[in-house]
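QA checklist item 7 of 12: single-chain prediction sanity check.
[x] sequence parsed
[x] length recorded as 103
[x] structure emitted
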Amino acid sequence: MSSLRMPQSLVRRLGAEGDAALRYELLEEQAQSLGRAGRKVETALKALADHPGGEDRAVALKAAADAVWSFLVQREVMGLRDRNAVIAQYGIPREVLARLGAR
């Protein structure tokens, strides 16, 4: 995986403090983005739980699987690969995992 680096022209102009500030901003944005994705998972799983059957359940199941998949991909891009912790923390149902191809 490659890392992002500030252009050398900016490094020379801003120095180490500018590099640290950019890294801080990037980490802050990653944390906020991951938090938003986690809240989408929570919302989608609640909607799934609120629809025990019928056509609405199929729609809620697809939405939950999409939200979980997006969240897991985002975590993996950030280097966070422990899916079991996420599955346990969010209580992701087996039927959602089956839609993702997980076992």
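[x] summary fact logged: The chain has a mean pLDDT of 87.
[ ] second reviewer sign-off
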